[in-house]
Fold this protein.
Amino acid sequence: MTNWKEKVIYQIWPRSFNDSNGDGIGDLVGIIEKLDYLKRLGIDLIWLSPVYLSSNKDYGYDIDDYYHINPEFGTMEDFDKLLEEAKLRGIGIIMDLVANHTSDQHEWFKKALDDPSSPYRDYYFFRKGKEGSPPNNWMSFFGGSSWTYDAKSKEYYLTQFTPNQCDLNWENVNMRQGIYDIMRFWLDKGIAGFRMDVINAISKDEELRDKDPDKKGLQFPAELTLNRPKTHTYLQEMNREVLSKYDCITIGEGALAGQEDVVRYTHPDSKELQMMFHFDLHMLGCGSLGRYDFRKLYRWRILDFKKVLISWQTEMQKQGGWIGSYLSNHDQRRQVSLFGDDKKFRRESAKALCLLNFTLRGTPFIYQGEEIGMVDCPLRQHEWRDYEAINAYEVLQQMMHVPAFIARSIIKKANRDNARTPMQWNAMKNAGFTTGKPWIKVNPNYMQLNAEDDEKHPESILTFYRDTIAFRKKHPVLTWGSFTSLCDAHKKAVVYIREDNKEKLFVLINMSNNHTKINFKNTNIKAPRLIYSTHKEERPFEEIMKLAPFEGRVYELN
Ligand code: TEU
Ligand code: CA
C-alpha cells in the first residue's frame, strides 16, 4: 500500500488553469499541456476540482452527472488521456467527490421533483413548511435560508449551499450505494483517490430541529448539520465497501471541523479517512458566520495565527490525527495577500509561507498560482463571478442593513474570485491563459508576475517551491518526525523542532514585515548548522538571532 501521507499535492481549479482552445475556459487538454511544468515542480498528485457535468452555479460543485465530463472541459477521452499522460510522469489524479449534494439537474433530483411518490424523493430532504415559512430556521452556508421552495408540491427541499445544490439524504441506503458506484467507476479507471467536499456535513439532525428556537431570524445550524455521530458510521461503511478495496488516497474537507472531529475522521483505528482539511487558520479575522460576517470582522495578530497553528500541530500529533496542510485553495483569498505581504515583501512572504507549509506535520497542498506568489485580484462588481459573493451582496444589504458601498467593499476583499482569476503563465496577452476572452478577469499584474519569468530565475518563488519540495522529500523527518513548538510567546516568529531518531531540524520563520530578534541564550540550542533558508546570504547561528522580514531558516541540531 502506498504511503500517501508523504506525497505533495497540487490543486487545479480547471476553469482558470489553462485554456487550450481559445474559448476562454481552462480545460483538460490545457492541463495535459502543463504536466511537464508540474513534473518539474516536483509534485506527486494533482487534486482536480470537479470536472463533471455541472450547472455551474457553483462552478463544478453543483453536479448534474458524475459519469460525464463537463463539455467545457473536454471529453472522457481527454480525461483518460490526462490520466495516462500524468501516469507517464509519475503523477496521480485525485478527483473531487461532491457527495453532500447534487445539482437540481441531476437525474435523481429531477425524478424526485417530478413525482413525490418516486423512490428518489427520499434521496433528498423534502419537507412541508411551517406557517408559510421554511421547515426550520437553518441559514445556508452562503447566506439566506437553507430551504428552496417547490411550488408544485408545495414542499421545501434542503439546499445548504446554493439553491440548486440539493442536500442528499445519507439515511437512504440506495442513495449511498449510488454514491459508492460513482466512486468505483472512477477508481476503476485508475484515479489515485478522492478529495471529499464538505464530507463532514453528510449527516443532519434526524428531526431537522430549529437551531436556537428562541432566537429570531435564521441561525447557522453548525451542531445540527456538521460532524454528526452518523457521519462516522457512513464513512466507515464507505471505507468498508469501497475505499478499503483500492490503494487510494482520501482527504476530507472538514468545514468547521474541530480537532476532536478530525482525529476521529483520520485516526487509523477509525477506518474512515486518511487526512482532513480544517478551516481554523482561515477563520481568523472572520465573524462566526464566516468571511462576510462584517459584525465581528477583526484584525488578527501573528500570535493568533501561531496559537491556532501550534495547537493543531500538537493535538494531531498527540491524538494520532492527520491533516492536509494548506494555506490557500479555491475558496480562500490568495495566501500572500491573506497571511503575507502582497506589496513590498511579496517574494519574501511567499517563500516564508511555503517554507512553513512544507515543514509542518501534515501532507502539503499547493493551490495553482501559489507557487509563483499570485496575489488577490480585486474585482469590480460587474466582474464578480462567484455565487457566494453575489448573494452575500444582497444578504448584507437586505438582512443586515449594510449600505451598498460598504457591502461592496466587504465583498471585494473576501470574494472567492480573488483566487480564481486565471493562472499567470507568461507576459503575453491574457497571461498566456487563453487566446480568447477569459471567463473572468486576468490579474493585470501578469506582466511582472508569471511562471515563465519565475522559471528563468534561480531566486524566484517558483524555484524556491521546487527546492522546498525536494528538501521535504530529502528529509523524511519533515513528514514523520515529531513537532515541538518553541518561543510560543514570540510575537513575530514561528519556531519549532521536527525530530526523529535520525535527524533534528530546527525551523524559524519570521511571519512579519519587520526585522525581529529571538533570544536563545540560556537554552541548549547551540551552534546548529544551517541547511535551508529563504534568504541566500550566509546566516550563522547567533544566540540572539536576527531575522529579516519574512526570513525563514532551517538548522540541523546536534
Ligand atoms: O466548500 C465548503 C465550504 O464550507 C465553503 O463553502 C466555505 O464555507 C466557503 O467557501 C466560505 O466562503 C466546498 C467547496 O470547496 C466550495 O467550493 C463549494 O462551494 C462548497 O463546498 C459547496 O460544494
Ligand atoms: Ca477551453
User: Anything to note?
Assistant: Residues 19-21, 23, 25, 27 surround calcium ion (ligand 2) (CB under 6 Å). The two ends are 34 Å apart (CA to CA). The domain at 4-102+173-376+446-470 is CATH 3.20.20.80 (TIM Barrel). The longest helix spans residues 302-319.
